Amino acid sequence: MHYAFRMAWSELKYKYVSLLMTVLFSCLIGYLCAEAVKAAMLGNLSASDHYKRYFADFLLIAISPSLGALSFSREYMSWTTMADEPFMRRLRFFRMWAIPVNVIAWSRIIYMLICFGAALVSFLAVFVTISWPTLAELWSPAEYASYLLVWIGYAVALNGINPFIEYGSNGKVVFLGTTSMILISFGAIYLLHRLLGKPIYVWVIEIVKVNPFWPAVISIVVGLLGLLFFQRALANKLTKRDLS
After folding, report:
1. Which of 3, 37, 197, 202 has the maximal Cβ count within 10 Å?
2. 148: left (phi > 0), else alpha (psi -120 to 50), else beta?
3. Residues 6+ away with beta carbon under 8 Å from 24
4. Count of Cβ atoms closer than 10 Å to residue 13 Cβ
5. Which of 38, 14, 146 is nearest to 86 (CA)?
């Protein structure tokens, strides 16, 4: 595990610009989500306000699972990724030095967690700063913390898909997979809105207001299980992948 961390850190220190862009983007997400949650709790969310009803859900459900990937890096911002295969080249380099597959898989998960951790801290800093002064009169600290932990657990569970796609597939799948997940998220959000009759982030508010403890615990457990699942899935994929 120590060697996996060193691998991840040594690679990430050359990506500080991309990481900074991801952090700034997370600040924007935190601000927009905080405003939407405030509007819902203050009763200012009208049925015709599609922006706050759908966009906040899109940010939380579709975008938060991507914060563990450096979406503003050259690999994601350039069409040449489909031909140059930067993730494949990096993987070949790792295997050239006979680094065990399990170490490589953990290094990719740790790399993702460092990126996600930086993005999460910036998101929470803005979200709490904007929303807590208003919500402190409406929520208990336990309810507020539970609400945040539910979304954190959700994001952690799905962020593992980023290294799995990056290193378990090719450049075309990276682009197609990202696009497909966004489209699937749009469809899921629309269907859940129709089913619940309200935004998903409002539905989560109602759940944690009833019982703050169990939603947070379940979400964090699911998040940890998601990490382990994608780490093992990636390790298994790497053992079978043809690097020629």
Report:
1. 37
2. alpha
3. 122
4. 9
5. 14
Q: Return the structure tokens found at 50.
A: 């599609």
pTM of the model: 0.87
CB 74 within 8 A of CB 17: no
Q: Are 38 and 131 in contact (CB under 8 A)?
A: yes
Q: What angle do CA 73, 234, 151 make, to 5 degrees?
A: 65
In degrees to the nearest 10, what's the CA dihedral of 142, 146, 148, 154? 170
Helix axes 161-168, 213-240, angle to 10 degrees: 10
Instruction: Tell me which DSSP letter residue 14 carries.
Output: T
Amino acid at 183: L
What tokens were used for 109? 């998960």
Residue 241 token pair: 């992948």
